[in-house]
Amino acid sequence: MLVYIIRRLIMLIPILFLVSFIAFFVIELPPGDWMTTYVSQLRASGIELSEQEAQRLSELYGFDQPMYARYLKWVQGIVLRGDFGWSFQWGKPVSEVIAERLPVTLAISLMALIFSWLIAIPIGIYSATHQYSFVDYLATFIGFIGLATPGFLLALILAWAVYEFFGFSALGLHSREYLDAPWSVAKVLDMLKHMILPLVIIGMSSAGSIIRVLRANLLDELKKQYVITARCKGMSEIQLLFKYPVRLALNPVFSTIGWLLPAIFAGEVLISIVLSVPSIGPLLLRSTLAQDTYLTGSIVLILSALTIFGTLLSDIYLAWADPRIRYGGLSR
Amino acid sequence: MSTQISKPAEQRLGNDSPPANSTLVDELEDLSIGAIEERLEAVSERFYYASQWQLILWRFQRHRLAVLSLILLVILYLLAAFAEFFSPYLATSRFTGLQMAPPTRIHIFHEGKLHRPFIYAPQRSLDPETFRYIFVEDTSTPYPILFFTQGEEYKLWGLWSANLRLFGTGPDAPPIMLFGSDPLGRDIFSRTIYGARISLTIGLLGVAISFVIGVIIGGISGYFGGTIDEVIQRLIDVIISIPLIPFWMALSAALPRNWTTVQTFFAITLILAAVNWTGLARVVRGKLLALREEDYALAAQVAGASKPRIIFRHLLPGFTSHLIVSITLSIPVAILGETALSFLGLGIQAPAVSWGVLLQDAQDLMVVAQQPWRLIPAIFVIGAVLLFNFVGDGLRDAADPYST
């Protein structure tokens, strides 16, 4: 078990390097960079800027160096000092800009994940044990709608509906009166109220796929002979269901966390933009548009790294829970 | 092989699972025992000789929802292909005085008498309290809806000039706007149909590209195995772990703003495909890993076939059906991706029309509250995605030889 974990941790290092590489070069693809835009903006606003001064600015921020040199410098900073570079747009270190918003993204994403399990697992089990019942069809239908409706659209419509019927503005993370107020119980409650809508929307879209996976697996599992044997021996249905088939059918649900997490992060980004939640989403949109290289690169890197860690955790859980994987992983 | 075929055959005839053609059951009820046996013989004979594709087709036909979805999808693509004919106006035509008009109502009663379908002219006025435009129908003259009428001049596929349109109201009558109009006075129905062109082809084209990449990379990975396989699998892991929307956002921000519509279109397609291929590559690899151990692969190798020939000639046909399922299920991902990107203003740029562009126009909460008809294009997005999913599900059930 320990060997397996260590092996996976070592494998993580090249993967993280690859991700940082992709993140950086994707950002660097656009012709021109932040500096050229900035210089032309300065000139457009009437500031006299000689070529030498522009050159000096460029050198100051390191734009005169080739791409790979900047990449190496960036990665070096991250690995050695935890320094993600400088955000030109905000005039602050990237880590500071992100630190303000990352907790919000993390909180919403994690809660959305848990929320989606909380609704998907009972529904999935129920649909499998009551195949072709009304609830089963309803769950399938809702799952399909969740799958097919763009999250941003759902966010838009629900935000309007909440405002129309409850008179509650779901935009942002705090109501106006709490914006500058110091932290208090009332402010936290207000914030939680604002988080419900993003949670439900993000959770719904992933819940659909979890229900489908769980239902299919549980149906397969329930057909197996050990279930019949247990039933013949007089085991109670509830005990029988939760003792083995549900546990087995849940494994694929946890093992696909690696695919679910990117979807949840992506959903969080998109929905935060629509609902103007002060999380990573709107930050990313603005920084991509402004070609704020290090900020965008760091966000993509951090989100991917979090996904990879999540996958790792789910793999470790699986190896711990399922001896077949544990021994298979060791013998490889 | 024979056991695989005979298993569903027995089940189909033996137990209560619905048979391929439901009339068979009715026929059987009326027949004597001997005749039934004869009839069964004929059916199973047909079953044994049927090709793999024939079997898939039979099973697919049993899936009512999937068949219906397929038909609707074909209609949707026809609408998109002949957008000029099916839409009453050009996507760019503006009607001054009719900005933000609600959907035109179609009437059949004029002054209490039955009349062929017609519309009334909308009259715009300003609400003195809210300063919003309100539209009232002027019920004095009915303007009949004309079918196969002459409308605005267009160039079909940019090649042939024509002006025949499926329906319209004629040159002097007020325009018919089934889905209302946008703030520039453009007909949303026409724009939705024109938008289908980009939105629906981007799915097909994007998936076609990811298919080629996926099959080649998955093929290499699955057939050669070993270190190559390990490297490719890790690469796929990395790409899958990058959250899609941020990745797409970063990529599409890289597109120069001054590109033409066609250039942006292909670039967006490539961006969508850049991530989409990984799923296909995994399917191909998994299947190849299983199939290359089969005896016939060994036989081909002994006979001196080259590796590419074994992969593409002998192994690939073995799981084409699975590939088709994966393709069908990844088209909607591309459609939703385009919509999301365009919605954020990073995808297709106006004046080009796609469903995402139409929804971008409507991203304000005020729009949802006051002009809900501007969200109608969303129904098309949801519909197209659902249809592809239903077809994909039907195909998956049909392509799985072990299903009943």
How many β strands of chain B by DSSP? 5
How far apart are the termini of chain B? Answer: 16 Å
What is the number of E strands of chain A?
Answer: 2
What is the percent of helical residues of chain B?
55-70%
Which CATH architecture of the largest domain in chain B would you pick? Orthogonal Bundle
Q: Per DSSP, what share of the residues of chain A sits in E-state strands of 2 or more residues?
A: under 5%
Helix content of chain A: over 70%
Q: Return the average pLDDT of chain B rounded to an integer.
A: 78
Provide the structure class of chain A: mainly alpha
Which parts of chain B are unreliable, with pLDDT below 50 for 5 consecutive residues or more?
1-20
Q: Write down the oligomeric state.
A: heterodimer
Under the CATH scheme, the architecture of the largest domain in chain A is Orthogonal Bundle
The biggest sheet of chain B amounts to: 3 strands, antiparallel
- CATH names the topology of the largest domain in chain B as MetI-like fold
Largest interface: A-B, 53 and 40 residues
Q: How far from one another are the termini of chain A? A: 13 Å
**CATH fold annotation of the largest domain in chain A:** MetI-like fold
Provide the residue-averaged pLDDT of chain A.
Answer: 80
CATH class of the largest domain in chain B: Mainly Alpha
Please describe what this structure looks like.
The complex is a heterodimer of chains A (332) and B (404). Chain A has two domains: 20-83, no CATH class; 102-331, MetI-like (MetI-like fold, Orthogonal Bundle). Chain A is 79% helix and 1% strand. Chain A has helices at 2-28, 34-44, 51-60, 67-81, 94-129, 134-148, 151-166, 185-222, 225-232, 237-243, 245-255, 257-275, 280-289, 293-321, 323-331; strands spanning 86-87, 92-93. In chain A, strands 1-2 form a two-stranded antiparallel sheet. In chain A, 36% of the residues are buried. The model of chain A has no long low-confidence stretch (mean pLDDT 80). Chain B has two domains: 64-81 and 192-399, MetI-like fold (Orthogonal Bundle); 87-186, no CATH class. Chain B is built from 16 helices and five strands. In chain B, a hairpin with a 6-residue loop joins strand 2 and strand 3. Residues 1-20 of chain B have low confidence and may be disordered. At the A-B interface, helix 1, helix 6, helix 7, helix 12 and helix 13 of A face helix 8, helix 9, helix 13, helix 15 and helix 16 of B.
